[in-house]
Amino acid sequence: MRLDKFLKVSRIIKRRTVANDACSESHVLVNGKIVKPAYNLKLGDIIEVQFGERVFRCRVKDMPEHVGKSEASGLYEVLSEE
Predict the structure, then answer these.
(1) Closest Cα partner for 38 from 81, 30, 70?
(2) pLDDT of residue 59
(3) Domain residue extents for the chain
(4) What is the pLDDT of residues 16-51, one digit of tens each?
(5) Which pLDDT score, from 0 to 100, does residue 66 have?
(6) How far apart, in whole angstroms, are the C-alpha atoms of residue 17 and residue 27?
(7) Beta-ladder partners of 56
(8) How far apart (Å, rounded) are the C-alpha atoms in residues 9 and 69?
(9) Cβ(41)–Cβ(60) below 8 Å
(10) Whole-model pTM?
């Protein structure tokens, strides 16, 4: 699954266009590397998203195409929120 789509489906970022912009502006790292929005995620990848001063780190657990709002937080495991 594409990185920008995963960020939207998991509701880490609410809109895919915003997720796309965040990736393009180097606010999103996968496994410690700057990646483009089209990067293909794999299970176990560690995503780091910078929201201004705040940094959110999580590990990918599942990647279904569609998921309900209540199950969205089950797609990733939160590692840290600073």
Answers:
(1) 30
(2) 96
(3) 3-81
(4) 999 999 999 999 999 999 999 999 999 999 999 998
(5) 84
(6) 14
(7) 49, 81
(8) 9
(9) yes
(10) 0.90
CA distance 23 to 3: 8
Residue in 12, 5, 15 with CA at minimum distance from that of residue 73: 12
Q: What is the assigned CATH class of domain 3-81? A: alpha beta
Q: How far apart are CA 67 and CA 82, in angstroms?
A: 27
Report the chain's mean pLDDT, rounded to a whole number: 92
Inter-residue long-range contacts of 41-44, CB under 8 Å, 24+ positions, other chains counted: 41/1, 41/2, 41/3, 41/6
Q: Which of 52, 67, 1, 44 is nearest to 22 (CA)?
A: 52
